TrEMBL record:
InterPro entries: DUF5753. Residues 3-155 form the DUF5753 domain. It comes from the Bacteria. This is DUF5753 domain-containing protein. The lineage of its organism: Bacteria, Bacillati, Actinomycetota, Actinomycetes, Streptosporangiales. Pfam families: DUF5753.
């Protein structure tokens, strides 16, 4: 969500909530894009992400929308605003199968976890549960490609979109 261009956000939201009016869709996509731009300009936080390779291959919107999205992500990685790792599609046994989550760490607050589903988000504060999610995140990092291979994979997907 923090890495999405407006056009990509619009396509993702449209496919996930086809009942939204054109105005609601535009409003939500613009809101996501503003948050992404604010994150990209800020000095902190540095965001560490592990995503499944299938996300790079999934097409939301046109080929141009997908290409612009991947270019945006590469730019954030190269500027060191984001540390991104990719779990290869041929690695089916991993902690990411539990669903999306965020471990949120700050210098002056206890760690929390944000878990989301299609209907709601939940903040988890119990120390044992937060520790479990940190363990899952570490396990995801362990099966993911390193930063160089991740960038190479994204660039190869961009070439595939261009027909190269």
């Amino acid at each position: 969500m923090y890495l999405q261009t407006e056009a990509y956000s619009r396509a993702v939201i449209r496919y996930g909530a086809p009942w939204l009016s054109a105005n609601e869709l535009a409003e939500r996509a613009q809101h996501r894009a503003r948050r992404a731009q604010q994150m990209a300009k800020a000095l902190s936080p540095v965001i560490w992400l592990v995503v499944d390779q299938s996300l790079l291959m999934r097409r939301y919107g046109s080929a141009q929308v997908q290409l612009e999205q991947l270019e945006y992500v590469v730019d954030l990685v190269e500027k060191e605003r984001v540390n991104l790792l990719v779990v290869p599609v041929d690695e089916p046994r991993h902690a990411g199968n539990n669903g999306p989550f965020r471990v949120i760490t700050s210098a002056d607050q206890p760690e929390v976890v944000y878990v989301e589903s299609a209907h709601q988000g939940q903040i988890i504060t119990a120390t044992n549960d937060v520790g479990r999610y940190r363990m899952w995140f570490a396990a995801l990092q362990g099966v993911a490609w390193g930063p160089d291979e991740t960038l190479r994979t994204i660039r190869n997907e961009m070439k595939r979109i261009n027909g190269d």
